[in-house]
Every structure is written in C-alpha cells, then in structure tokens.
Amino acid sequence: MFARDDQSEGAPCLRRQGTATRLVVDGKPFLILGGELLNSSTSSLEYMKPVWDRLTRQNLNTVLAGVSWELIEPAEGHFDFSLVDGLVKSARAHGLHLGLLWFASWKNGMSSYDPLWVKRDNLRFPRVRFSNGSVPEILSPLGTATADADARAFRALMKHIREIDGQAHTVLLVQVENEMGLYGDSRDRSAAAEAAFAGQVPIECSRYLSAHSRELVPELRAPWMAAGAKTAGTWTEVFGRGTFTDEIFMAWHYARYTERVAAAGAAEYPIPFYVNAALDGPASKPGEYASGGPLAHVLNIWQAAAPHIALLAPDIYSPNFAERCQQFSRSGNPLFVPETIRGPVSARNLFLAFGAYNAIGFSPFAIDAVQPVPFLPESEADRAAVGAVYGVFRQIEPLVLEHQGKGDMTGFVLDKEHPSLRVTLGGADLEIGLDDLFDQKAEWGSGIVIAVGNGEYYGMGSGFRVVFRALPGGTGRVGLGAVDEGVFRAGLWIPGRRLNGDEDDQGRAWRFNPWALQLQHCALYRY
Ligand code: DGJ
Fold it and tell me: Are 98 and 65 in contact (CB under 8 A)?
C-alpha cells in the first residue's frame, strides 16, 4: 500500500524561539489549525468517507484522530494497521495533517479501548481498587505487565508510522492515552499501590523537585516546602498528609507508565508526544476530578516522571479559557489546546491561544459532528464559526509563526468584564478596547496584533479598536499614517481599501468593527 519510507531529517519536532516553543515540520514552523474527531469516527474508513470534505471545508490543516489499541492489536502480538493506513492516505488526499490519539490503557479515566485479551486477564493486567473494595473497569497504572503490553503496541504503531510516513510527515504528533486520572477515589488502593504508597518517594522524583525548586508551580512547591522540602522519605513525609498527596502519588504512577509507553514509541519514531487533561472543577477534590491526570498543579511531577512527553495539554471546555492557558504555560510547558468547544467562543479564544500564549495548536472537539452533540449545544451557524476564522487566519499564519516568542505580538478576547488592555508593542503604547457602535460598546472583541517594525502593524479580528500613544520619554506624538484593509496572497500583502473617515474614527483609532472579520495593516507616523 505504501512504499517503505525511512525517517527523514525534517520529522516533526519542537524547537524554541525566544519565549515560545514551535512545532517544526520539514524545517519549517507549523501552526496547528485543528479539529478533533468524535471518538469512534476513525474505527470505520467507510464512515469517514463523506467526513473528509467537510473537514477541508472548515479550513483545518490538521485533524486529531483516534487510533485504538483494541483495533490494531485484536490478538496479542497480531497487528492490523489497515485503519491507520486508510486514515493516513485519506488525510494526504485531502491535504490534511494528522495528530493521532493513542486510545489505549485509559480513555477519560476508564479502560474501554484496551483489547479484550487485556480486559479479561485481571491477574496479568491488574485493575485499580477503591477504598470501598470495589474494582472498576480501570487498569492500574502500577501494572507493569500492562505498561509493557501497551508500550509494545505503541512501539509497533510508531514503527509503522515511520515506515509509511517517515518522509511525508502527514502525522505531526501523537497523544499518548486520553484524559488519564482516577475518578472514584483519590488513589488506587490495590495491594501493589498500597505497598508503593507506604514506600519511599522515588529518588528521580525528589531529585527533580530539588533541582527545579525555583521553577515549580506554586501549588506543588507550597506543600513540598511546608513538609520541609525533603529529598527523601515516604509520600506523606515528603508532601504531607491529605488527598493532594494521593494525587501526586497517582500523577507519578500514571506519568511513569506513560513514559514507558512513550519511550517505546520514541525508540522507533520520536515525533512530539503529548498527554491531554480533563480539567478539575473549582471546588472539586482529587477523585471527583481525574486524580493523577496531567493537570497544571502536578505539571512538574509529570515533567519529572515522563521526559518523553513533550507537553501537557488542557482540554478547555470551561469559560476561564485565558486562566487555563496561563496555567498550562508554566515551567516551560508549551501550550497546545487539543480539545475545546466548537462555537463562536472558540472562534475568539483561538486569537488568545496563538497571539498571547504562543500555542502550537488549537483544536475544537467533535469537528465532524453534523448534529448537535449533547454535551456541546450549538447551532449550525455556531459550528461554522471556527472554520471561518481559520480561513482568514491561514493568511497570517506565517507572520504569527515568525513573531511567536519575540514579544512583539499580542492576542486577546475582550468582553464586558475585560473591556480593555494595554500593551507595549513595536515601540508604542497600545490601548486595545471594545469597539464602539453608534456610541454603544460592542459586546465582544477579539483579535491579534503584530508589530512588524518601523511603526507598522498587522491586525486581525473584530470588535476592537486600538489607540496608539508614544511611549513615555519618547519624542513627539504618534498618529495613524495609513490604515489599509487587505489580504496576504502567497505571503505578499495586497492592500485593498484605504480606511479613513468613520472606519478609523477620523484618525483617532485603528478599528476592527464587530460585524466582520478583518485583516488590516497600519503604519504610524510621528509628529
Ligand atoms: C474529553 C475527551 O478527551 C474526549 O475524548 C471526549 O470524550 C470529550 N471529553 C467529550 O466531552
């Protein structure tokens, strides 16, 4: 089906630029304008046939798609990659890249995608135990034979991906497992887990905490310091008593297990691997949310335990999008949003992710759903919102990539609670606020502004206005020299209308009105 292919120089990898980390493919930086498929879509190539055109119509460049352990290894040691082959072929035929989701030992905390030969053998592949004695359908992260079996399958998958895609690079990255973490108890109470919990914190963990003590997230640093910043001891000696210690213990074990799987895959084809997190609620406790999952407050535990995992990625369905981006941008963790809602809110949030947090990608969930999904109430127009923004965003993608991590770009979402912000960009002071509509403030504004030097800026978005001021101590004042709408074609700026008069409030502000998505250039002058 595929010519044998060996890994080339340009295989996807992550590279730093200033304060940002970029995904680099074939030597060029790449921004994932993505969407994630419903969980079961890729279990049937037939089902997928009409889906591909719908995806390209949404202007995606990358699709996140499930590959399940159960379907690639139905009998132990017997692999069937026909679904993977079909997926890669169809993605290529539609000019799309792929992120693969390795649905294996855990999916949303449960173990539903492991093969039946794993599910049936509870002795070799032990399950967790809750404190009330019950044994749910959840594999224990302390099961070493389970980790080995998962790792063997993942290694076979990555070997196959290298063989069919090591040159073409359709597959950009792989998510290892899905939304790990224990629901129902704060930690596993199986015999193996109890013994490990009574034992010493592994030396790799305590050494990492001491070596990185200044970069630790405060939620982790505080209990560790309060317990005496110990470099040895049991889990309760090092982290104190309480369910947070249970969570740290689980995080270590989920992460160690994941590391075994990821390292096995990397031995064949080391492209970026990541894990995704089901986020904790405001007042919930470990076990009510996924205890030990790759959450922001245990970020450093995951970093210590799983060096083959390049990043922890939040699935952001909650309204506090900016706060979540910030939490997952700490301790050097690059931001990637693999799942979020589809509608107009996401069409605004993507500016924040790319412009303010240097995200490597953004990807609403259920991108192939044509019917409203029960947990994502949305209209047909809502479903088109992100795709419409992607369509225009593709024009400025090279500019965004060029400026990520350099301190001359910002992205924002404005609303009644956050009506304005001030930033210094390109040697001027910018006050960015909600646009006015016939003396009424717009309800929403969102966009991205990039300073490209010489007092010139590009902006994209809607519902905001920018007032420029000279920096304190600078000479003279600044005014709008020229404002143009336009398009980028093959990387070249083609100006359209010159925007004066009402369009720039007679020279007072660089405006992006609320009823259209605009791309504009403006040049300042001094007087
Ligand atoms: C998050 C999971 O990661 C997805 O696979 C899917 O189950 C969604 N939740 C559904 O809300």
Answer: yes
Residue 357: CA count within 13 A, CB half-sphere: 28
User: Which residue is listed with tokens 């249970």?
Assistant: 246
Residue 379 — pLDDT band, cuts 50, 70, 90? confident
Provide the H-helix boundaries in 227-298. 235-239, 243-268
| d(C-alpha 309, C-alpha 311), whole Å | 6
Residue nearest atom 8 of ligand 1, based on CA coordinates: 365
CA distance 62 to 95: 9
For ligand 1, atom 2: residue with the closest CA: 108
Q: Which residues line ligand 1 (CB under 6 A)?
A: 39, 108, 178-179, 276, 315, 339, 365, 375
Which whole number is the average pLDDT over 19-39?
97
CA of 108 to the centre of ligand 1 (A): 7
Question: For the residues of 149-161, what is the DSSP string, one character each?
Answer: HHHHHHHHHHHHH
| Segments in 425-481 forming alpha helices (H) | none
Q: What is the best residue among 43, 317, 365, 367 to mutate for testing ligand 1's pocket, by most ligand atoms within 8 Å of CB?
A: 365
pLDDT in tens, 180-222: 999 999 999 999 999 999 999 999 999 999 999 999 999 999 9
Encoding tokens for residue 257? 């297990």
Q: Which residues contact 417 (CB under 8 A, 6 or more apart)?
A: none
Residue 5 has pLDDT above 60, yes or no: no
Q: What is the mean pLDDT of residues 143-164?
A: 98
Q: Which residues contact 166 (CB under 8 A, 6 or more apart)?
A: 5, 6, 7, 8, 11, 269
- Per-residue pLDDT at 2: 45
Q: How many CA atoms lie within 13 A of 69 on its CB side?
A: 30
Catalogue the E-assigned strands of 58-204: 62-68, 97-107, 171-178
Strand partners, 85: none
pLDDT of 462-481, one tens digit each?
999 999 999 887 778 999 99
Question: Would the CA dihedral through 367, 369, 370, 375 be positive or negative?
Answer: negative
Residue of 41, 68, 108, 175 to mutate, ligand 1, most atoms within 8 A of C-beta? 108
Counting ligand 1 atoms within 8 A of each CB, the residue from 103, 179, 337, 363 with the most, and so the one to mutate, is 179
